[in-house]
Amino acid sequence: IIKQQISKIQFGKTNEPLQWNSTDEIGNLVTEYNNMLVKLEKSTELLAQSERENAWREMAKQVAHEIKNPLTPMKLHIQHLQRVAETNPQDMNERVIKLADMLIEQIDTLSHIATEFSSFAKLPKANLEILNVLDVLQNITDLFQQNTNCEVKLYATDQLYINADREQCLRVFTNLLKNAEQAIPEDRKGKIEVVAFENEGWVRVNVKDNGCGVPESIQQKLFTPNFTTKSTGTGLGLAMVKNIILSFNGTITFVTEENIGTIFTVSFPLVRLDKKEEE
Q1: Angle in degrees, CA 26, 30, 34, rounded to 5
Q2: Which residue from 113, 108, 270 is spatially nearest to 205, judged by alpha carbons?
Q3: What digits encode the pLDDT tens for the residues 124-147?
Q4: CA 226, 228, 231, 234 torsion: positive or negative?
Q5: CATH architecture for the domain at 129-278
Q6: How far apart are CA 47 and CA 94, in angstroms?
Q7: Burial of 140 (0-12, 13-18, 19+ CB in 10 A)
Q8: Interior CA angle at 173 toward 170 and 176, to 5°?
Q9: How far apart are CA 219 and CA 205, in angstroms?
Q10: Residue 231 above 50 pLDDT?
Q11: Alpha helix (H) residue ranges in the chain
């Protein structure tokens, strides 16, 4: 019995203690086994707490770093304006206009950073409804095509229903399309394909680009908060995308080939409607 119980022990799970009503050698062994379970549970709790604290420390470092970036040029420009006011006051009007434009731009950057971290820390409560994925993808690709030099094509089955939040779905695919665009080198004609189809009870949506691909050394970090391959940004986009998809009981995966491109695949449980509901 003890051997069977030991083989069933799972780290991080609730493990049932053994019952033995005798104080013989087996009873002593059972007592030690139960004491070990208590110690294991305490160790698990301490480890989980430590991991949470470390995660928040890293997040705090990232927030501080991102905020400091725009603050530095703001301070330098204001100091420069002070010197101009002392040495060449006749140029103040032009300098103030330039400074105001720069400050507005940096404040917008700070606002974006705050929004990104806030969105990742606490996603809005999902307003679940039955959606036709084609409608969402059509809106996103049409809008995106108007604001990019890339060629964007959509291929989708007419009726692909899922249970999801429309606004959060829009965020997911907007983010994936932006990532696809940013992965394409400037000297290459960008091509992005969005393909949606039904497969074994799931709605699959592939977002394919002809970009530079994801190097093997960073593939495991793509969905990690704070990780980014871009020179600007908070590194929360794909982490937030994954959180949203998981909240819909979905999955996200990718395949990539360096200098050829990447395909992100988002999968949602398919919702089957009868003909009356479709109408």
Answers
A1: 170
A2: 270
A3: 567 889 999 999 999 889 888 888
A4: negative
A5: 2-Layer Sandwich (3.30)
A6: 58
A7: buried
A8: 145
A9: 20
A10: no
A11: 2-8, 25-87, 92-121, 133-145, 166-182, 237-247, 275-278
